[in-house]
Design brief:
Low-confidence stretches of chain C: none
Radius of gyration of chain A: 18 Å
Order of helices and strands of chain A: HHHHHEHHEEEH
Oligomer: heterotrimer
Strand content of chain C: 15-25%
Structural class of chain A: alpha+beta
Number of domains of chain C: 1
CATH class of the largest domain in chain A: Alpha Beta
Strand order of the largest sheet of chain C: 2-1-3-4-5
Helix content of chain A: 40-55%
Shape of chain A: elongated
Distance between the termini of chain A: 45 Å
Strand order of the largest sheet of chain A: 2-1-3-4
CATH architecture of the largest domain in chain A: 3-Layer(aba) Sandwich
Radius of gyration of chain C: 16 Å
CATH topology of the largest domain in chain A: Glutaredoxin
Structural class of chain C: alpha+beta
Number of helices of chain A: 8
Order of helices and strands of chain C: HEHHEEEHE
Chains: A alpha+beta (167), B alpha/beta (595), C alpha+beta (128)
CATH superfamily of chain C: Glutaredoxin
């Protein structure tokens, strides 16, 4: 892909906080991952155009940045749903039915893991151990829902959809 | 008259099964009968973690501890101890003398736990440095900076016998010494807080509950090795721990406990937080350093070891959170005190995240040499729902699965390795009869394959191959030859992989082939999953003799594959059934058959 | 801060801590607020404590957050320290139990049955 194609994408605005962070960090050795975290925090994911802009600002080849982004699970290249539901697949949750939760969610929403519903409302993510093994199985979306059973999911989805209010 | 004595009766599952409930009721009625009902309160408590000697009754405020109390003893305890103040000698817990490898330290304890790493967790406010200081915080640093030379600090850590708690168990003092010995203008201290092992959260809890202990330890390490810069490499998935570390660092800087000229000693030390981004392999030290340098987290060949050429080519010591949290106490209380706890080769304590099919899941810290049985049954309160113990998994995806025959193994680095598992970072996952070993192993393999960085062939190809074979077996299509193939691939990976991630990926398979080969063979020879977990090998059907036609299962079924008239036996359409188990859970008449 | 400052501060803090539970009748509630505790509802518990203390006009209580006490199976957890009562760890402290702790433990000096836990170990820093 030629750079000219990418150049046509409207350049995204970086927040003052992000701009300052990049300024503070760009000359420190090994700062790329820290900057990418901030970038993802502003956009909720890493939009291609934002990475391109970053590449120019910190003077690093796009290939280098993409190499790093695609290596780490935490960085997302696609926009997650308004409610990104993370189902824990740590060992304790797996043993206590994490997979059933995931399957039920997929059935209910009609999407697979790392996919977004058509209305942009929900996405599902399978994550490794969120560290609440005492509450297994758990799912996270804003707050942590512990000791979950598939029967509770409709209620939770309903409340998440209803608004910012977490049940 | 006000209440002045309390009678705590254990209501844990172990004690309940031995009639602690009757003890509780009898104590209450005895108190009324003896006219002390308004002075003595009898309450039921959570598990005391001493289930082998239950039922337990503890009296407060004098802390008397009664064990093996029977319902008929209740009256005597109330009449003698609580009314007259005379202990009932024959029921009091006797201190048992020397315990295998605990050292004299723990001999009079009924509590199996000794908290060194977690000494402040659950006691202090982690965001208030004054609370840490009031509990002898930064006293270890004081001692190091003003009473000891750097080499004396290293000698003290060496003498304590402390070994790395991240899993491999390399002696910490030696690591520091090697780093110090390498000539360089700069050295680095790294705290490895990239706790990626699924089912383990010891380091997160330590950082959330006592961040200053890690900062103090890193500063001591910096002084000992001649390093002026430290990094904490922490998972981005731990926002609360990161926040508390940031608060703690700010406070320490303001108080002159971190930064330039610490406490007027002339020693400078700075710490910076670097976030991980969700890559399990970055727990491996060379990959971790790649990640701090802003690269893909690929492991590098060793040697050179980080102590010779580490971060940006400078000598670097990488210690795990739990290892570091021990350091201030070792300096404060001395290496001899620390070395008195534990076994000959493994000193001190180990924190475990005890989870799975256990009654009291939780974070526990026990002296090295404690047995798995003590952890599972005494502290953990046994298996949930009265099910049978099957195995305990230690060491996460790099570890192994140990069956009941090893419950009495005293835990230390060597003993666990000897029986085919490993200490690992500290996840202990208890499996019961409902868990299929092949399925659990597949879970770990799935994890390791996904986390393989792909740099070396044994890990990248071998892991995938192993996972394919396991999947084949869980679908009932495996052959006996597959087992041999898995063994061969496993051995090859152990020998030829570049880093420990690849080298330990086959461990769950190899250890279970040793102890649970029959379960694999059941899947292969009879297409049968004994635990009923592997969905391709089970079918759900209705036992017509037991079904009363209540229609509950039909209403629960998410795919509407159950049919039948009301009050007559129902039928499950095997072609449509997705084997979700909802009908099995819903049926009150045991009429759903899993086979 | 110099070495002398740090030592002086530590002694002063220790003395203040000793006074707290003998001289000035302060009651301390320590609430487990690690990730597990918060996930299990520690924030609602905190709110319930604050409201109940306000309605009961109890003013000498300090509530402080702490990390994980290790009782993941019974989160949220709270430790109550006050004169005339044994230091008590409570588990499964939801909003309702928090209100009972204020009413029973703090005001009536009675333990809340069914929620008491033993401390997991002795305190190594208090041993010589």
């Amino acid at each position: 892909m030629s750079a000219s194609v990418l150049d046509k994408v409207a350049e995204p605005e970086f927040s003052p906080h992000l701009t300052q962070f990049i300024k503070d960090w760009k000359d420190k050795p090994g700062s790329l991952i820290m900057i990418l975290h901030q970038l993802q925090q502003q956009f909720g994911y890493l939009p291609r155009a934002a990475i391109l802009k970053l590449s120019r600002e910190i003077n690093l080849p796009l290939a280098k940045i993409y190499g790093v982004v695609t290596f780490y699970h935490y960085f997302k290249l696609t926009k997650p749903g308004r409610n990104n539901i993370q189902v824990c697949m740590g060992t304790a949750c797996y043993l206590k039915g994490g997979e059933d939760l995931l399957q039920e969610l997929e059935n209910m929403l009609g999407i697979g893991v790392n996919q977004v519903t058509e209305d942009g409302e929900f996405s599902i993510e399978s994550v490794r151990c969120v560290g609440c093994c005492g509450l297994a199985p758990v799912a996270v979306c804003g707050t942590v829902f512990g000791k979950l059973v598939p029967e509770k999911l409709p209620e939770i989805l309903g409340k998440l959809k209803a608004g910012g209010e977490q049940p | 008259m006000a209440l002045n004595q309390f009678c705590l009766v254990c209501g844990g599952t172990g004690c309940e099964s031995r009639h602690s409930d009757a003890v509780y009721k009898n104590l209450k009625s005895a108190a009324e009968e003896l006219g002390v009902g308004n002075q003595v309160q009898v309450v039921k408590t959570g598990c005391f973690g001493f289930c082998e000697k239950g039922p337990i009754v503890k009296i407060l405020p004098d802390e008397s501890f009664y064990v093996g109390v029977k319902p008929e003893d209740a009256h005597q305890i109330m009449a003698e101890h609580l009314v007259k103040g005379l202990p009932v000698e024959h029921l009091l817990h006797k201190t048992h003398g020397h315990h295998s490898g605990w050292g004299e330290y723990a001999s009079q304890l009924y509590q199996k736990q000794v908290r060194i790493v977690l000494r402040n967790c659950g006691i202090i406010d982690p965001e208030d440095v004054q609370e840490y200081i009031s509990r002898d915080g930064y006293a270890g640093l004081e001692k190091a900076l003003f009473e000891m030379s750097p080499t004396e600090v290293i000698a003290e850590v060496k003498a304590s016998g402390l070994r790395g708690r991240g899993g491999a168990g390399f002696p910490t003092g030696l690591k520091w010494e090697n780093t110090r010995k390498t000539v360089s203008d700069q050295r680095y201290v790294i705290c490895n807080a990239d706790e990626g092992d699924p089912g383990a959260y010891m380091d997160r809890s330590t950082l959330e509950g006592d961040p200053h202990s890690v900062l103090e330890a890193m500063t001591i390490a910096g002084y000992a090795m001649g390093a002026s810069q430290g990094f904490i490499y922490i998972r981005a998935e731990y926002p609360l721990a990161i926040h508390r570390l940031e608060v703690a660092m700010q406070q320490s800087r303001e108080m002159g406990l971190l930064g330039k000229d610490i406490l007027g000693s002339g020693f400078d030390f700075a710490i910076e937080i670097r976030l991980g981004a969700g890559a399990f392999v970055c727990g491996e030290e060379t990959a971790l350093m790649q990640s701090i340098e802003g690269n893909r987290g690929m492991p590098q060949p060793k040697p050179p070891y980080p102590s010779e050429s580490g971060l940006w080519g400078k000598p670097t010591a990488i210690n795990n959170v739990e290892t570091l949290a021990n350091i201030p106490v070792i300096l404060l209380k001395g290496s001899a005190w620390f070395a008195s706890i534990g076994t000959p080769t493994s000193k001190g304590t180990k924190v475990f995240a005890l989870t799975g099919k256990i009654n009291n899941s939780g974070l526990v810290e026990v002296p090295m040499g404690t047995t798995l049985r003590e952890i599972v049954y005494d502290i953990g309160g046994g298996i949930r729902g009265g099910k049978a113990f099957k195995a305990v998994q230690s060491g996460g995806p790099s570890g192994g699965v140990l069956p009941a025959q090893f419950l009495d193994t005293p835990i230390d680095y060597e003993s666990l390795t000897k029986v085919g598992s490993m200490m690992g970072s500290g996840g202990l996952i208890v499996l019961d009869e409902d868990d299929c070993i092949v399925d659990v192993v597949k879970f770990y393999l799935d994890f390791s394959v996904e986390e393989s960085c792909g740099k070396c062939a044994p890990c990248r190809i071998g892991g995938r191959k192993l996972l394919n074979l396991l999947t084949k077996i869980t679908k009932g299509k495996g052959t006996r030859a597959d087992i041999e193939t898995m063994r061969q691939i496993g051995f090859a990976m152990q020998r030829a992989s570049l880093c420990m991630l690849g080298g330990t990926t086959p461990n769950p398979i190899l250890s279970t082939l040793k102890y649970f080969e029959n379960e694999y063979l059941e899947h292969i020879d009879h297409q049968h999953c004994p635990a009923g977990k592997c969905k391709d090998l089970i079918t759900y059907s209705v036992l017509a003799s037991k079904c009363i036609g209540c229609t509950v299962c039909a209403r629960k079924c998410p795919v509407n594959c159950i049919s039948g008239e009301r009050k007559s036996a129902h039928f499950i359409d095997p072609a449509k059934c997705i084997k979700c188990g909802a009908c099995y859970e819903a049926c009150k008449f045991e009429a759903i058959l899993v086979s | 801060m110099t070495l002398q400052d740090l030592r002086g501060l530590r002694e002063a803090l220790k003395a203040a801590l000793a006074r707290r539970f003998s001289g000035d009748h302060t009651i301390e509630i320590t609430l487990g607020m690690g990730t597990c505790g918060i996930a299990a509802g520690a924030k609602e518990t905190l709110e319930a404590f604050v409201n109940e203390l306000k309605t009961s006009a109890v003013h000498n209580v300090v509530i402080k957050p702490t990390g994980c006490m290790g009782f993941c199976h019974s989160e949220p957890t709270a430790l109550v320290k006050m004169e005339g009562m044994p230091d008590t760890i409570y588990g499964n402290v939801d909003a309702k139990t928090a209100r009972r702790i204020v009413q029973n433990h703090i005001l009536e000096k009675k333990l809340v049955d069914g929620h008491v836990f033993d401390r997991p170990s002795r305190d190594i820093l208090k041993e010589t």
